[in-house]
Amino acid sequence: MKCDYCGNEITGSDYSYETGGHKVIKSKTFALPFKCSRCHGTFCASHRLPESHHCAYLNKPKPRKETKNTIKSSKESKKNPVYEPTIACNSSSHWQPHNPSEATFYMNDNKYIVKKKTKFPFVAIFFTFIFVLTILAIISFSSSDGNISNGNTLDSVPSTVFVKASGEPITLIENQSASDPTWDELIAFLKEDDTDRILYQKGTFVCADFAEKLHNNAENAGIKTAYVVVDFTDRPEGHALNAVTTTDKCLVYVDCTGSTTALDELDSFDKIAYIEEGKEYGVVSAYYTNTPDYEFYNLRKDNVRLRGFFESLGIVKNVEIYWEL
């Protein structure tokens, strides 16, 4: 057998018959050949020591066998790791916690850094959101009664067409569920409505009263209706009427201002108004027309034999339509 370091044969001079194959060196008995407990190499007596054969594991600790005590302590360290806060030195030359959201612990001679999770206040945000929605619902409910609003008053506009004959400002209701009708649905509503049968009397019931009443009746019937104001170039006072957007014939102006004299049972003052700025204000009975186009009125206004045409109020200067107040 050769020495792993010098390569020489381990001769019999290293063998002692007196000790049964062992050689006595400095009053100690060693078995031949020598086995290094670190690198597990085979060496002669001259190179038996780790320093002699330049053992590769000279600077490393010798592996030790685990005993019952070491196994027990290892298990306990896993169950109960030691925690300590991570600290760092600052400019004031004293020690303070480096980051309170982190912690360092040691387990089995290993160092671990644990970051503590910050819980986001989802519960607080949720309840804040519910609180805001509740406040908004209370405000919305206090300003409305079901689907129909309590009424909007046009008292901020300094015009006589926004003031009723009694001197009070007009009040319009808005039905949130109202929608646009067809032409036939609009005509059917006008036939059932009796606003046009009220007598026109200055100081009692004027165009603003008629427009307010028709607007509110239509909104209650589920028809989205606008309040319209017309100014003229050749007369100082304006005029109030209504407008409805039909699904099949677009915008329709409706003028239900009543007569100054009582109507017969079959008479009606339900009128379709034909309005364009700079042109004559035309009105035709709602039951003698089937279109809101101004050309229908313009081509027939001079034919005195046609029925259902009413006297014009003048030349239109401007038109203002109020769908919402």
From TrEMBL:
TM stretches of this protein: 120-141
Keyword Repeat applies: no
Keywords attached to this entry: Membrane, Metal-binding, Transmembrane, Transmembrane helix, Zinc, Zinc-finger
Protein name: AN1-like Zinc finger
Source organism of this protein record: Methanolobus vulcani
GO MF annotations, alphabetized: zinc ion binding
Family matches, as InterPro entries: AN1-like_Znf (IPR035896), Znf_AN1 (IPR000058)
SUPFAM superfamilies given in the database record: AN1-like Zinc finger (SSF118310)
SMART domains noted in UniProt: ZnF_AN1
Lineage: Archaea, Methanobacteriati, Methanobacteriota, Stenosarchaea group, Methanomicrobia
Residue stretches making up the AN1-type domain: 14-63
Signal peptide positions (record): none
One matching Pfam family: zf-AN1
